[in-house]
Write a structure and sequence with these properties.
The chain has 4 helices and 9 strands, in the order ββββαβββββααα. By secondary structure, the protein is α+β, with helices and mostly antiparallel strands. Helix 1 crosses helix 2.
Length: 208
């Protein structure tokens, strides 16, 4: 599974010995593919796809949904859109910052997944950074409002989020490849979030 290592790169401020934050370096496990953010039509997003050879679209979708549910504190509640016929779901994720943990910084964004023909397409969008200021008030900024060219901290936000999301995605891909779910037939009840008699364990996990 992917791991990230975040460290400070410091520089001296003028002639005094006070070190100030310049930027951060994030080192990913060599097996983790990095998916950077990019601006398109005025919106920041991450989009790509991965093909799973010899794995059915249904198994890919089941495992994707299981992973998304298992990784979230709110389980099914953070899945905001679910279309079992199109094998598509969207989930709102809250991922804490490793580097800016001292002021409760975290990243909120939507991940949308769609499966077709043995391929999983994924799009991360609606990204924002949220943190507490010195007064203890919550502040949030959409990534589109960040000035990554002039402000190192803003660039750090974008890069750290991309790294954390890349780890999330690579762990998901590994789960899709290795997990063997039970056969799922109760899709209508799963879509409605209902557990009914006769469901197997996989179906129950998908429904709650």
């Amino acid at each position: 599974y992917g791991q990230s290592f975040v460290k400070k790169l410091l520089k001296k401020n003028g002639d005094n010995s006070t070190a100030v934050l310049d930027t951060i370096a994030i080192v990913l496990d060599k097996n983790v593919t990095y998916y950077p953010s990019s601006m398109k039509d005025g919106k920041m997003n991450v989009s790509n796809s991965i093909n799973f050879q010899n794995i059915s679209s249904e198994r890919i979708f089941i495992n994707t949904m299981l992973y998304v549910i298992n990784k979230a504190e709110r389980g099914r509640e953070h899945i905001v859109e679910l279309d079992v016929e199109k094998k598509q779901l969207s989930a709102i994720l809250d991922i804490p910052s490793d580097f800016y943990s001292d002021n409760s910084t975290y990243y909120q964004y939507a991940n949308t997944f769609r499966t077709s023909g043995g391929e999983l397409t994924f799009i991360a969008s609606e990204m924002l950074v949220r943190y507490k200021n010195m007064m203890g008030d919550w502040k949030e900024f959409p990534f589109e409002d960040l000035d990554t060219n002039k402000k190192a901290k803003h660039k750090n936000y974008v890069n750290e989020h991309a790294a954390l999301n890349s780890i999330y995605l690579n762990d998901l891909f590994l789960f899709v490849k290795t997990n063997q779910p039970e056969k799922v037939t109760n899709w209508n009840n799963i879509a409605e979030g209902k557990i009914v008699a006769g469901m197997n364990e996989t179906e129950c996990l998908l429904a709650v």
